[in-house]
Amino acid sequence: MSKHVKKGEIPPDNAKTRAIMGFTADDAGEFLTTNQGVRISHDEDSLKAGKRGPTLLEDFHFREKITHFDHEMIPERVVHARGSGAHGVFECTEAMGEYTSADFLSEAGRQTPVFVRFSQVLGSKGSMDTARDVRGFATKFYTDKGNFDLVGNNIPVFFIQDAIKFPDLIHAGKPEPNTHIPQASTAHDTFWDFISLTPESTHVILWALSDRGITRSYRMMEGFGVNTYRFVNATGQGRFVKFHWKPKLGIHGLVWEEAQMIGGMDSDFLRRDLYDAIGMGFYPEWEFGVQMIEDADEHNFDFDILDPTKIWPEEEVPVKIIGRLTLNRNPDNFFAEVEQVAFHPGHVVPGIDFSNDPLLQGRLFSYLDTQISRLGGPNFHEIPVNRPIAQVHNNQRDAMHRQTINKGRVSYIPNSLGDNEPNVASREQGGFVPYAGRIIEGPATRSRDEKFMDFYSQARMFWLSLTDPERRHLLQAAHFELGKVESKAVRERMVANFNKVDHELAAAIAMGVGVATPPAGEASTYEKSSPAVSMAGTAKGTIESRKVAIIAAPGFDGKQLAAMQEALVAAGAVVEVVSMLLGHIESADGQMVPVKKNYITSASVLYDGVYIPGGQASISMLAFSGKVKNFISEMYRHCKAIAATGEAVGLLESYKLPGLVPGAGKDATAKDLGVIMDTKPKDMKAVAADFITALGQHRAWAREDVKNKVPA
Question: Binding residues for heme, per the UniProt record (predicted)?
Answer without folding.
Answer: 77, 117, 166, 363, 367, 374
